[in-house]
Amino acid sequence: MKLLFINQYYWPDSTATSQLLTDLCEHLAARGHDVHVVTGRTPYAGQQALLAPEETHQGVKIHRVWALSMGRRTLLHRAADFASFNASALRGALNLTGVDAVLSLSTPPLVATLGVAAKALRGARLIYWVQDLYPDLAVALGALRADGAVAQVAGLVSSHILSHADAVVALGGKMREQLMARGAHPDRTHVIDNWSDGDAITPMPAQKNPLRQAWNTLDRFCVMYSGNFGLAHDFVTLNSAMAALGSRPDLDFVLVGDGPKKATLEKLAAEQALTSVRFLPLFARERLGDSLTSADVHLISLEKSLSGMVVPSKLYGVMAAGRPSIYVGPKDSDVWRILQETEAGLCVENGDVDGLVRALMDLKAHPAECARMGKNARAAFVKRFDREHALRAWEAVITGEQPQALARPAA
Asked: Which of 7, 36, 191, 354 has most Cβ atoms within 10 angstroms of its Cβ?
């Protein structure tokens, strides 16, 4: 089959959606499909050096289109970037003929309208991979007014995409419920979890981890947050817990990544003189295994109002590393349900600072329990969340061979 994928970011970009899409495209190319990607020329991290407009990598033909790169400083800047990419990507998509299926992600918001156009003009099947639910997410974060014209129009467009897609893929049962409420057809709405590479990320004892050795922190309990410091994540509860614990010599908080909330966290840590907290840039993908196994426990968070709109994908890398997670977020979410079902971590509701402190101290005080949860995490990962499980499910959906929704009950 000739397949077209549309997303603002792709290899060599290191964002989560870029890495996931790269895995999927390279898998399909290796399986003999003719795979094309329309993406942007500017990486997410904002480097100004433009990537090559045309390139083939691991059998995937990459078509990079121009777009503004004004950054994420304001909603207006982001909207301008999104609009320019959508316009360029539409031209790039329509330049390809003979496409059997178009798969659009949700970056930038409502980019799947390009898939609707390709379906109408080229007769291709449309598959919509929902990573974030728009405009609901923008409304919940306060970027749009629920009763405003932009949100109302965006909601109608979203419903149109969902109702016209030949397949819609959600990241969890809760998200699937919300997509169907928006107009997605139940029989065409599937759940495929995001994934991680269980061959590249494998459990490693902390005492043998090269980063822990380099940091000289083998005698401390290492707590890590790794990923996007995004607007969807609850850092207020996390920061309050770190402040409550203070600068203890037996604790090491390592916060890895970048995003709009990082500067605020760095400022708070400096003002509170939290010497046990360090901030690091995101590690390259080939070092992700060392990074994730350097921690004794990982923190995952989600804002209370965002259940079903976002599913933090960092969970799967943590489980691959054989480490437990402490999740701060709403109860009615897929991450909460997964951790409870698999006994691979602890869950705390948003704002429960004392509960988060207790969870951290309990795992620190009981290393055998911490290790048990880590083993449970790896076992559940191998059984349900390894890359090969997801890629096989994806190929079935893309080729139209999956007759029924791959759905699990919502949390």
From this structure: 7
Beta bridge partners of 126: 102
- One-character DSSP codes across 318-361: HHHTT--EEEES-SSSHHHHHHHHHT-EEEE-TT-HHHHHHHHH
Do residues 257 and 285 lie in contact, with contact meaning Cβ atoms separated by under 8 Å? Answer: no
Number of Cβ atoms within 10 Å of the Cβ of 360: 24
* Residues 6+ away with beta carbon under 8 Å from 327: 300, 301, 302, 315, 335, 336, 339, 345, 346, 347, 348
Number of residues that this document lists for the chain: 411
17-53 pLDDT tens trace: 899 999 999 999 999 999 999 998 887 765 557 899 9
Q: Cα(214)–Cα(217) distance, rounded to whole angstroms?
A: 8
Phi-psi region of 278 (alpha: psi -120 to 50; beta: other; left: phi over 0): beta
How far is 267 from 253, CA to CA, in rounded Å?
15
408 exposure class (CB count in 10 Å sphere: 0-12, 13-18, 19+): middle
Three-class SS state of 393: helix
Q: For the range 52-55, what are the long-range contacts, defined as Cβ-Cβ under 8 Å and sequence gap of 24 or more?
A: none
Q: What angle do CA 163, 165, 167 make, to 5 degrees?
A: 115
How far is the C-alpha of 109 from the C-alpha of 131, rounded, in Å? 10
Give 305's DSSP letter. G
Of 118, 81, 28, nearest to 394 by C-alpha is 28
**For the segment 4-17, what is each residue's pLDDT rounded down to a tens digit?**
999 988 999 878 88
Could you tell me the pLDDT band of residue 405, with boundaries at 50, 70 and 90? very low
Supply 237's token pair: 């509860």
Q: Which helix (H) or strand (E) holds 257?
A: strand 251-258
Distance of alpha carbon 391 from alpha carbon 28, whole angstroms: 9
Q: What is the pTM of this model?
A: 0.89
Cα end-to-end distance, the chain, whole Å? 36
CA–CA separation, 181 and 185 (whole Å): 9
